Amino acid sequence: MPAARVEPDASVTTWGSARARRASSGRMLCRCSARWRRRCWNPTQLQRWDQRVWEGRAVAAGSGAAQQDVGGDIGARRHRLQRWDQRVRERRAVGARSGAAPRDIGGAVGAKRDSIYNAGMSACETCEQWQWALVLLGEMSEAKLEPDVISYNAGISACEKGEQWQRALALLSEIWKVKLERTVISYSAGISACEKGQQWQRALALLIEMSEAELEPNVISCSAGISACEKVGQWQRALALLADMVEAKLVPNVISYNAGISACETGEQWQPALALLGEMAEARLKAN
User: Fold this and answer.
1) In whole angstroms, what is the distance from residue 284 CA to residue 3 CA?
2) What are the pLDDT digits (tens) for 118-139?
3) Crossing angle of the two packed helices 165-177 and 184-196, in degrees rounded to 10
4) Tens digit of pLDDT for each residue in 230-288?
5) At which residues are the PPR repeats (predicted)?
6) CA–CA separation, 193 vs 163, rounded Å?
């Protein structure tokens, strides 16, 4: 008679399978932890990590950056700065071989530095600080920047307001020495400086030089020439300049007529003075 088949107890089967699963998971965890220990506690891997940390700290210390920023934007910025410095050195070398001016190498940077110096000299001119204007003009050469006509004009105007006609004429002649073209503003500032220094011959010479340079004198330059003649009693020359203004289709202003009338007063010429007052009334200019 065949033996009866005994069915296993369900609770025993469940307990055995759970024990087997726990043993299998335990073995898996052991294998994973062993693999993790081999990866994390590898001496060679630790040495490489330490080396990277020390290199990053050295870079941060050299650039003055915080240690938490190591390896981030700081390295990229330093790399860009190094490339920029390399390009600047290459452009300087090319400029030195081609004989280019130092202020032309940097492009817009050099032009911006020139404009800063020019603005400073214009401020000194407005405040009648001619000494500081000349100091800034000298510093431009020391900074390897070539002053332009605007720089010289600001210096001449500053000397004119400071009644330094000799220095103004020296700067005017220096414009020609550095092979720059004088402008109407350059001559007008020089003539005004001569007018304040009572140098009427030099003022008239500059007016003639303007015509020879194919530059048309404006109202300011002609008025300065008339004032220069008025201060030394040259009323005939003052009236002649006033007539030349009308012939050149320049409209005299109040300053022009005042200088002419004052010249007639100095020369005791009351008839021409009254005539100039009549011309002012016709031009609808209010006498002061």
Assistant:
1) 144
2) 888 888 888 888 999 899 988 8
3) 150
4) 988 899 999 999 999 988 889 999 999 999 999 999 889 999 999 999 998 888 887 77
5) 183-217, 218-252
6) 6
d(CA 39, CA 168): 81
Token pair recorded at residue 142: 């020391």
**Closest by CA position to 148, among listed 99, 97, 123, 185:** 185
User: What is the Cα–Cα distance from 214 to 210, expressed in whole angstroms?
Assistant: 6
For the record, the structure tokens of 61 come out as 């210390």
d(CA 243, CA 186): 23
Record the tokens describing residue 112, joined without a space.
Answer: 């911006």
Which DSSP state fits 106? S
- The dihedral over CA atoms of 40, 43, 44, 50, expressed in degrees to the nearest 10, equals 80
User: If we measure between CA atoms, which residue out of 190, 202, 248, 245 comes closest to residue 223?
Assistant: 245
CB 218 within 8 A of CB 251: no
On whether the CB atoms of residues 117 and 75 are closer than 8 A, the answer is no
C-alpha closest to that of 211 among 235, 169, 247, 236? 247
pTM over cut 0.90: no
Q: Report angle CA 44, 46, 49 to the nearest 5 degrees.
A: 115
Contact 195, 224 (CB under 8 A): yes
User: Which has the closest alpha carbon to 148: 123, 102, 122, 115?
Assistant: 115
- Cα–Cα dist 72/59, whole Å: 11
Residues 6 or more apart whose Cβ sits within 8 Å of residue 96: none
